[in-house]
Each structure stands twice: as C-alpha cells, then as structure tokens.
Amino acid sequence: MTADATPALVEDKQRTAAGPRVRKGSAYPRYLAGKLAGAAVSLLAVLVTSFFLFRLIPGDPVKTMTGGRQVSAEQLAAYREEFGLGLPLWRQFTDYCGKALTGDFGTSYQFRTPVVDKITEALPNTLLLTGTAFVLYTALGIFLGTRSAWRHGRLGDRLHTGLALTLYSIPSFWLGLLLIIVLSVGIGPLPGMFPTGGMESGGEEGFGHVLDVAHHLVLPVVTLVAVEYGQTLLVTRSALLDEMGSDYLTTARAKGLRDDLVRRRHAVPNALLPTVTLIFINLGRTVAGVILVETVFSWPGLGGLFYQALSVPDLPLVQGLFFVFAAAVILMNTLADLVYPLLDPRVAR
Fold first, then answer.
1. 283-304 confidence digits (pLDDT tens)
2. Angle subtended at Cα 134 by Cα 128 and Cα 139, rounded to the nearest 5 degrees
3. This model's pTM is above 0.70
4. Alpha-carbon gap, residue 30 to 22, rounded angstroms
C-alpha cells in the first residue's frame, strides 16, 4: 500500500463510521417542515379543545347575562337564538371552527362586541406588564445563574439558590396580596406607598400619566419578577455546571485567558440552549399574561379579562382568549426549535 493511498483509506473509514453523508442544506428544510407541521397540528388541537372544554363549565350564560332579572321564556329563547346557543352542538362546533380559521371568534355575551376587539384592546396592557417583568426576570436569572454556577458551593451560590427556590415555590397571588398589605395599605409604622390596583389613577396627562402608570406597575412587576426569576436562574446554573468540566474550558485556561473571559466567551454561550427554550416559553406566556396576578392587582389585561369572562361564562370570549394564550406558547416553542440549529447545527441533523 502506498503512502498516497493511506489518507484516502482513512477518509473512507471515517465516512463509513459516520454513516451516510447528508447533502449540505438538505437537513434544515426537512427539520423546518416537520416543526411547522407539528405547530399546525397543535393549533388545530387547541381549536377543538377550546370549544368543548369550556362547555363543561356549569351555568347558563343567557341567564347570567340577564343579571337575575325576571325574563320570559320567549326572551330567553330569543337570546339563545341570537348567540346561536339553540343550535345542535355539532352545528355550533362547525360554525365556530369555520369562523375561527378566518380570525372571527364571535361576539362577547357580556360586552356585545367582537371578541377580537376586546383582545386587541387588552393586549397592550398585558404586554406592558408582563413584557417589563419578562425582561427583568430573564436578565436577573441569567446573571445570577451564571455567577452561582461559576462559584458553586460558596456562600453566594447557596444564598441565591435558596432564595430562588423559596420564591419560586410561593404562589404568585399570595405574594401579590402580601405586597398589597405591606406596601399599599401599610402595616404598623410603614405607610402605604403604592396603589392597591388598577393601571392609572386618572386625571394625569403627558409625562405625569407615564409616571402614574409606572407607579401602578411597580407591585405587579415585582411580584412577577420575584416568582419567575428563580426558574431561569436554576436552569442557567444547571446547564453551566454541566459545561464546567469540559476539555475546551481547560484548554482556554491553559492558554492564559482570564477566568471572566472563559466564562463569558466559552462556557456561557455553550450552556444557553436550555435557557433559550425557557426564554421562548416565557415569551409565549407574556402574551397570556399571568391571570392571577392581573386579577389580584385589577390590571386591565388579557389575564383579568379571562377571569372576568370565565365567571359568566362568556363562551366566545373565553374560547378566543384560550386560543390566543395557547397559540402564543406554541408559536414561541416552534420559534425556539427553529433557532436551535443556528446555535448548534447538530440539532437539525
């Protein structure tokens, strides 16, 4: 065997061990098509579930709409005919699916306006609250998670991890009520400093209105950040700990790189995949808001609107909100799956 033939033989063995070679650029389109198809199936499943699930709620929406007034049987029948509640269930389902696929979720029973208009009206308020909290608790969780992992076992790591676990286990509505009692109502010598609820006091314009909204925003944002940052911290810490013993970090240190540079340039980017998943999931939940927190603080967002609709029950509004909540999470999960191959090309193989 000649020396020139040796490299070719080695290359053939490597190809055999690695399996059939995939043509460049052919893996990602198949990966993309599979993820998009899975998202479409999930959205259809949510559409079906949202129709049947909320019809299990006890109560008559038509009687609730009358507010306990004396109403004749003819008037009740007219209401049911107006909202399509007198139709057979299968007919209601086909009408709902047909309209929902065009973006029409019907008319709200209690507000007598299109569901899409009510969602559009409340969506900016939810994005303001949960979007602000999302940015803060994500940044705080990643920062403290990386520092805890890099100094794991020390006092700071134990304090951060213990506090994160404690706050993460506290129900958000309970923490919100506690903050209202202490910081809004006041307790003992401590006066109330923040509003008990709502989004604005009214009567303010311009920059004064911005300050008023920011003042109302403090307690619900603090509640969400306190409860949610621990999850990001723990996921980031765990992922980074798995990377700590890798050979490439030892090599980077052996080259004389500072410990801070090794962490920021090498360890953290390779440990971000689990955190990216969590970030996109939380980003999907941002559209849904946090129902209990918005209810406790009387925040006029999608979460508070869902609670209000559920108490009637306002079926078209509940179904529309449920679909929007689930669709946001599904779309964000799909987007995370599509970003993965950009961070690690092995995922799409």
1. 877 776 678 888 889 899 888 8
2. 135
3. yes
4. 12
